[in-house]
Design brief:
Length: 139
């Protein structure tokens, strides 16, 4: 009888230990879910304003606040929020408005008030950026 009680005690302790381990795992998963939700909220909070204009900014065409993930390029954000055509990392068309050699037009890019020196595929967006695309003529 003594062996039976000892065996029963060991089984009971093993059962408690097993229950204790499974109780911990959902907490870890819940913490992971909370962190994922926090990260998702951060991605939603990361925004920039993109404005489309024509003719040396004389005619405003569209303005949109766009969400993006940290580290995302301007090209990726533009493709997610506008209908974009590109050539060699440079944007050649936005929402059906095309730059054209025939019309001698191009998309001039300004980020935070400064002319961009690279294509949209090389510009990493930051929260609060102000991006302007102006369809301009060249001579």
């Amino acid at each position: 009888m003594n062996k039976f009680l000892s065996l029963l005690s060991v089984l009971f302790l093993a059962l408690l230990a097993a229950c204790g381990n499974t109780a911990e795992e959902p907490k870890k998963e819940a913490q992971g879910s909370e962190q994922a939700a926090e990260n998702g909220e951060k991605a939603e909070e990361t925004k920039a304003v993109v404005t489309l204009t024509k003719n040396e900014m004389a005619e405003k065409v569209d303005s949109k606040e766009v969400s993006f993930e940290e580290g995302q390029t301007l090209m990726d954000a533009m493709k997610a929020n506008f209908e974009v055509e590109e050539a060699g990392g440079f944007i050649s068309g936005i929402d059906g408005m095309m730059a054209s050699d025939k019309d001698k037009t191009y998309w001039h890019l300004i980020v935070n008030g400064e002319d961009a020196m690279t294509g949209a595929n090389e510009i990493e967006l930051k929260d609060g950026d102000k991006v302007e695309f102006d369809l301009r003529k060249y001579e």
